[in-house]
Each structure stands twice: as structure tokens, then as C-alpha cells.
Design goal:
Elements (H helix, E strand, L loop, with lengths): L6 H9 L24 H25 L8 H10 L1 H6 L3 H19 L5 E7 L8 E6 L9 E4 L6 E3 L3 H9 L5 E3 H8 L3 H10 L4 E4 L2 E5 H8 L7
Antiparallel strand pairs: 1-2, 2-3, 3-4, 5-7, 6-7
Helix pairs in contact: 1-2, 1-5, 2-3, 2-5, 7-8
């Protein structure tokens, strides 16, 4: 039930989008001002998160007589986390997991509705983790770097350009050669900057079928320094 811990942050993130933007808005009584954009999907997602947590907290309270949890999302999520072993043994455990996982997926679509391209990488490299790694790429937002996520543990997360190091741990390959488009997506920089760095820093290169590929060690040596990503 790892998704349970994600709900408070998702709830707050939806709150920042209530005004129709991704910026925090000032709280007002009686809803948004006339003419002010309002993100209905974000509001509904927040209501659903609160409703689901409230419902399952009620199940725990009724069965365990453990006292009523306060009616706030962070408190409810923490309350359920304290009773997660009891929930896992409950007859409705599968329903809890399915409902919370579905809620996380739906809320993430509200927060970031753009379709993601998913590229399977392989098994998670962290010790004793059974998850699978996937690279998440936003094709329409080239300025946003790719991200690598684990299916089992949300804490196992890396920037897209870390794929090079992860792939070595997975396959023990010595060298990878990257196209300018690959580099631009992984580091979230403009293709023109890739060519400039390649020229200025004399990156090693190879040509295949009319395309140029650059040595990953040279690329990382330059772009792993944040000041160079321009």
C-alpha cells in the first residue's frame, strides 16, 4: 500500500491547481471570485481523496475501536498507515489496494494530463527491490527532462540522464553512444546546446547511417555539472 503515502502530497498538489494554474492561490470564503478560472477536476480529485481516506478510516475505527481520526487528509493517511498491517490482513485488503492505486493514477492525470511515453528499462537496481524501472518521457515538453521511476517503491526515482549509470548496473556495458535528440531529452536542454557542447568540449563521436552519436562519458562529464546545462 505504498500509494497511500502519496495521497497527502497529491491532495496538496491539486489544491495548487484549483485556480486553473499550477500556482498556489489565496484562500477565500465562498469559492473563487467571479470570472476566476476554477479547476473542477482538481477539486473533485481532492474530494475523492478525502472521501476514500475517510471511508477506510471509518472501517478501522469501527473494527478496532481505536478512536476517531481527525478529518484531514494528512492525518487520515497517517492513521491508515499506522494500521496498514491490519488492513493488509483484512478481507477487503485487495479492495483497499485497488481503490487507492486507482485514486493515485486518476489524481496524477489531473495534475499532469499530458500523455507520457513509457520506456521499460529493466529490474530496479536497488537491493531487494522487486520493482521494474520505466523511463517517463513527455514528448510535447522537451524542456522537461525524462524521469525514471520504480513500479514498487516511489522513493526509487532518478532523473532521466541517470539512465546511463543505471543501465551499466543492469547490463554492465562499458560505453553507450547517444544521439543529440537522446541527450536533449535526457537532460532537458535544447538540441542546439547539445551541438555547442559537443564542439566546445570535443566530445568523442561516431557516425551511423548519417547520424552522429556521442560518447556517454564525455556527455556526462559536461552535463552532470548543472552550470553547464545551457
Amino acid at each position: 500500500m505504498g500509494e497511500l503515502r502519496q495521497l497527502p502530497a497529491l491532495y496538496e498538489e491539486c489544491g495548487r491547481r484549483l485556480s486553473g494554474t499550477d500556482q498556489p492561490r489565496e484562500r477565500t470564503s465562498g469559492g473563487p471570485l467571479p470570472g476566476m478560472p476554477f479547476n473542477t477536476a482538481a477539486s473533485e480529485a481532492r474530494s475523492e481523496i478525502l472521501g476514500v481516506l475517510r471511508s477506510w478510516a471509518g472501517v478501522v475505527v469501527d473494527a478496532r475501536r481505536s478512536g476517531t481520526a481527525r478529518d484531514r487528509v494528512p492525518v487520515l493517511a497517517a492513521f491508515l498507515s499506522r494500521h496498514v498491517e491490519w488492513l493488509a490482513a483484512h478481507a477487503a485488503a485487495a479492495d483497499v489496494c485497488e481503490e487507492v492505486a486507482g485514486l493515485v493514477r486518476r489524481t496524477r492525470r489531473v495534475i499532469d494530463p499530458e500523455p507520457l511515453s513509457r520506456v521499460a528499462i529493466g529490474a530496479c537496481v536497488e537491493t531487494a527491490c522487486s520493482g521494474e524501472l520505466t523511463a517517463m518521457v513527455r514528448p510535447r515538453q522537451a524542456h522537461r527532462p525524462a524521469e525514471i521511476v520504480c513500479s514498487a517503491d516511489p522513493a526509487h526515482r532518478w532523473p532521466g540522464h541517470e539512465w546511463l549509470r543505471l543501465s551499466r548496473r543492469l547490463a554492465q556495458e562499458e560505453t553507450r553512444w547517444l544521439s543529440a535528440a537522446d541527450i536533449a531529452r535526457l537532460w532537458g536542454i535544447a538540441p542546439g546546446s547539445v551541438y555547442r557542447h559537443a564542439s566546445e568540449r570535443s566530445w568523442r563521436r561516431r557516425s551511423r547511417s548519417g547520424r552522429t552519436f556521442y560518447h556517454d562519458g564525455d556527455v556526462r562529464g559536461t552535463l552532470d555539472q548543472p552550470a553547464q546545462r545551457a
